[in-house]
Design a protein that fits this description.
Layout: H1 2-24, E1 28-31, H2 34-42, E2 49-51, H3 59-69, E3 73-76, H4 82-97, E4 101-103, H5 105-114, H6 124-135
Length: 136
């Protein structure tokens, strides 16, 4: 049991490290809200973020912000629930039409590791703390 928990914690850490490296290269990260940005920053992921659901912003406003950024690639890191999955797929299609590369690698990797245990990005920090407590 402890071995499985340790492996899961290590997998999440590897994904976060790769995400930190990618954001350090200047790749824009799209998340749902402010709490997701705070969670990523707590996990050491800096860089530039665009939020989808902040301050009454519409999806059209978000798309304009993305276009205005001049980004060639955007990491999509929305929640893993039904709404987040639906929005990820819509944004992916839109970005592809606009010839902006949608990067869903981190989203899919985290979803695979976290399974049904974590449904939103902002909960990853608490989940990691829980895993670490179990390992002590």
């Amino acid at each position: 049991m402890l071995k499985r928990i340790k492996e899961k914690e290590e997998q999440i850490q590897r994904i976060m490290e790769a995400l930190r490296e990618e954001s350090a290269r200047g790749t824009l990260i799209l998340v749902e809200g402010k709490k997701d940005v705070e969670a990523m920053q707590t996990l050491g992921v800096g860089g530039s973020f665009v939020t989808v659901k902040t301050g009454g912003k519409s999806l059209a406003d978000t798309l304009q912000e993305i276009e205005g950024s001049g980004a060639r690639e955007i990491i999509l890191l929305l929640d893993f629930d039904e709404r987040g999955t639906e929005m990820t797929l819509k944004l992916k299609q839109y970005l592809e039409r606009e010839r902006i590369k949608p990067n869903t690698h981190f989203w899919m990797s985290l979803q695979r590791v976290l399974g049904k245990e974590v449904r939103c990005i902002e909960s990853i920090t608490a989940y990691l703390l829980t895993l670490r407590r179990k390992l002590e």
